[in-house]
Amino acid sequence: MPIMEWQETFRIDIELFDDHHQQLVELLNSTYDKLAKGLSAEEIATVLDALVEYADYHFEAEEQWMLANSYPYLGMHVSEHAGFRANVAEMRSNYGEGKETILAILNFLVDWLSKHILITDADLGRFSRLKI
């Protein structure tokens, strides 16, 4: 059973970012599946790191697109990405110290990604459609 279902409402109609978002959902589900199979804490941490690396790749692509397209809310969007990175770094550190569970981290990621796509990234899609 997946921890996050892809929904058509996640589409922002910027193909590259829709593909990235689907990949992030797949990575979250893959991480959750591996957790359910009982991988060691070290193996889970490695999978989690790959997921966060992909999120960073996606954020960089979004930020470059926003810059190239003179997106008016670039600063706010970048700030949201920075907040995500800081939260995940803290949670990852806490996980390494035994103060955080991987399930809590995954739940945070699902909640954050859903809200970010449906609210913040949806605005990118609306902006893109206005530019056409």
Quick rundown:
The chain is mainly alpha-helical. It contains four helices and no strands.
Features:
globular; mainly alpha; Four Helix Bundle (Hemerythrin (Met), subunit A); 132 residues
Please provide a written account of the structure:
The protein is mostly helical and 132 residues long. Helices cover 78% and strands 0% of the residues. The protein has four helices and no strands. The protein starts with 14 loop residues before the first helix and ends with a helix.
Oligomer: single chain
Give the radius of gyration: 15 Å
SSE ordering: HHHH
CATH superfamily: Hemerythrin-like
The description of the largest β-sheet is: none
CATH class: Mainly Alpha
The low-confidence runs, each spanning 5 or more residues with pLDDT under 50, are: none
Kindly state the number of beta strands. 0
CATH fold node name: Four Helix Bundle (Hemerythrin (Met), subunit A)
Number of domains: 1
**Nearest-integer average pLDDT:** 91
Named CATH architecture: Up-down Bundle
State the separation between the terminal residues, measured CA to CA: 39 Å
Percent in strands: under 5%
Which range best describes the helical content: under 10%, 10-25%, 25-40%, 40-55%, 55-70% or over 70%?
A: over 70%
Blueprint (SSEs and pairs):
Blueprint: H1 15-36, H2 41-68, H3 74-96, H4 102-131
Helix pairs in contact: 1-2, 1-4, 2-3, 3-4
